[in-house]
Each structure stands twice: as structure tokens, then as C-alpha cells.
Amino acid sequence: MDRRSFLRSMGLGVGASALVGASPLNPLDSRPAPDSSTDTTPEPTSTTTAEPTTAAPPEHYRWTRDLYGTVRGLVTDGAGEELYVSIGRNVYRLAADSGDVDWQAESEQTVEAPVALGESAAFAVGDEGRLLSIARSSGDRNWFEDVYVYRAARPRVYDGTVVVLGQRVHGFEADSGDHQWQSEQTFTTPGALRDDGFLYVGSGRTFAKLDLADGSTVWEWDDRDHLDMPNAGFRLDADRGLLYATYNGTLFAVETETGDVAWQADGNYVRALDLYGDYLLTVTETDADNTKFSAIDLDEPAVAYEQIAPLDVDGWSYGRVTTSLAAHDSYAVAGTDTGHLVALDAASGRLVGATAVAEDSLARLHVDGDAAFVSGSGFLRSVDLATASLTDT
Q1: 249, 112: one domain
Q2: pLDDT at 182 over 50
Q3: Domain limits for position 125
Q4: 150 plus 15 within the same structural domain
Q5: Does residue 233 sit in the same domain as residue 170?
Q6: What is the full DSSP assignment across 41-68?
Q7: Segment 196-205, tens digit of pLDDT
Q8: Is the pTM of this model over 0.90?
Q9: Please, are residues 109 and 91 in contact by the beta-carbon 8 Å criterion?
Q10: What distance in Å separates the CA atoms of residue 209 and residue 220, rounded to the nearest whole number?
Q11: Strand stretches in 136-278, DSSP E
Q12: Closest CA to 379 of 393, 363, 392
């Protein structure tokens, strides 16, 4: 019996009915809060009326789940109906609108990156390189394959192939798990971006564009010309034919057709960046641990502004940015260590709005339409941005 038949026969997908509360074995708590006391002795009659002790949640909270462990990935499907959550060795599928758990699947390794979604399967990579295929409909495990990785990264799916970023980039047939190809280059801790049938991938000392049909090299950087190479923050600017990516404090703009550097900028370590119209917004941290927002006007290109919060951002009282950047109503959205979501106009740096979504720091943010999904210490929450008064449109 091969490993695929073995996994199917074992039925290792665990349904939501098996969840019994947040714990190391069951990170997502599906139960209502338990009664704080099991004593059934009646209380003495009182002549005063007690005030309610539990306030109703804010209107913009859609649902909340207690959890054990750290969320490593939040991914929604194309329709925004399914939410895939990576915690510890588990991948969960939740109903995005209610937070109800549809299924739980378990790996032998810690899943330290978001899953990738194929037509009928979700693909998770463990911290030691195990690629696991999970049926999206049921949570059953289809097959697994092992590759060598320095650090787990989110896989990519294209045209029936699932791509794993390991010491080499590997292509596996999505339905069967059969190995199709591997890259010539070796990588350590790569970042990557897929653009149709091509993959841009870099790890600080190696940077290349690969053809996903067979893993062949379209172009790659020569280490005699480039000491440092991109490994994070990959963003595609299709209108300008440029790829933006970072290495520590260096921001590169790379021509996608040739691999030539169009321009580069140096600064502090880039925590997050994203494209908003004609502006590339970056989030860095100053030596005093404050957040700095910088925007590049891509039509020039030139720095449009640099603002340190709270010194240069009017109305800022929200600590430091602690999540990736997202977008809503054309504005940049981020989470902070005060438990707020903030929205900024990337063109001007103006603080558009802010709303409280937690009492403690936010660690992860994913936005899909009017729904924001945030996580922090001990919680996963969905927020309705349409009722959160976050933006002025």
C-alpha cells in the first residue's frame, strides 16, 4: 500500500464535531464560554437589581474564536466564503461569514505558512518540508511528499502544478503528487511571487525568474554583479512591467522581462509594502521603534513623503504597525500593537480612520472585500469593515 492509499484508508481529516475546546491538540475553541460556576445552590434573595456584567460586542465584530497557538496563515477562497487557518500542525477550514469550523486536517509537522488553494485541494507545507494535499470538500488528506527546506514558505499553484519553495524549487502534479521538475538554483529562505506561468523567487544570494511549465530559468542574477538580492515583499506592477522586492533595508524595482534593476532605494528594514494606484507604500521601523510610512510616486519615481507615527501623522495614537498591509476602499489598511485597524491614504499619508478590533496587539491581517480577519494572542476575529467607520467613503 503506497502512502496515498494509506492516508485515504486512515481517514485523517477530522470533522468539526471532534473539536472540544482550545488546547494544544485543538487550537480553535468551538464551544460557547462555559459557566463560571457549577454550584447550583440558590443565592440569597437581594433587594437590589444587578447590572449586566457582559457588554454586547461592538457592531463591527462579525465573530470571534478563542485559540491556542499562533496563527501562521489566513487565506480565503475566490468567493470569500471559505477561510483557511494555519495553526500549529493543523489546517482548519471555517465558514468565513460565521466562523463555524467545517473541518480540521493535521500534519506531522508545524504548518508555518498560509496554504495554497487549488481547484479541489488545499496545499500546506510543514516546517521540515512536508507538502500535504488536503481535500477542500472534506479535509481528508490526499497525499504528501517531502522536500528539503530551510524555512517553510507558502506554496503556489498553477495549471495543475503545485510549486514548493525548498532548497530547490519543486513542481508536483497537484492531483497525484508526482514530482515533475526542480530548479537548477538552490535557495535558503526564499520569497516568491507567481505571475501567470512564471515564478519570481529570491533568497538574498540567489534571485531568478522561472518558467513553471518545467522549472527552467528565464533569467537570473549573477552574484558577481549583485551582492544582495531580493528575498521578501514581492509585489508586481504589471502596468509598468516591474517587480518590487526587498532585502533587509534595500528596495529593488526589477524589470520583469529582462531582470535588470530599474532603480533601487536604501533605508531601514522593510516590515511591509504594497501597491496603491501610482504609489508604493512601505512600512519600516525607526531606531526608536516608531513606525515610519514612506511612499514612492511611481510616475517619477521619487519619494513622495516620509512620515513617522505619531510625530508626523495627525491624529495618530495607535502605537506601531505590527501586521502586513492590506487594502479597503483604495486605502492602505494595517493592524497595530494597540489592537486597532488603521487606514491611510497612500498618496498623501493622511490618517483616514481607525477602529478598535482587539484589546491587545494584532499579529496577522487578511482582508477580503468588506471582511477583515485578524489574529493576536489567544483570538481569531472577523470584522465587518462596512460598519467599522474605518474609511471616509
Answers
A1: no
A2: yes
A3: 1-30+58-180
A4: yes
A5: no
A6: PPPPP-SSPPPPSSPPPPTTEEEEEEBS
A7: 999 999 998 8
A8: no
A9: no
A10: 6
A11: 141-146, 156-158, 161-165, 169-173, 179-182, 191-195, 198-202, 207-211, 216-220, 232-237, 242-247, 250-255, 261-266, 270-276
A12: 363
Give yes or no: residues 175 and 200 share one domain. no
Q: What CATH number is attached to the domain comprising 86?
A: 2.130.10.10
| Torsion sign across C-alpha atoms 317, 371, 272, 264 | negative
What are the backbone dihedrals phi and psi of residue 6, each rounded to the nearest 5 degrees, phi first?
-65, -45
Which residue, among 282, 287, 288, 277, has the nearest Cα to 307 in the 3D structure?
282
Cell of 133: 494535499
- As for how many domains the chain has, the answer is 2
321 DSSP β-pair partners: 336
Grid-cell match 495618530, residue found? 316
Same domain, 124 and 251: no
Half-sphere exposure of 161 (CA within 13 A, CB side): 23
Tens-place pLDDT, residues 222-258: 988 888 999 999 999 999 999 999 998 899 999 999 9
Name 216's bridge partners.
Answer: 211
Given phi > 0 = left and psi -120 to 50 = alpha, else beta, which region is 277?
left
By DSSP bridging, strand 216-220 and strand 207-211 are antiparallel
Mean pLDDT of all residues belonging to the chain = 88
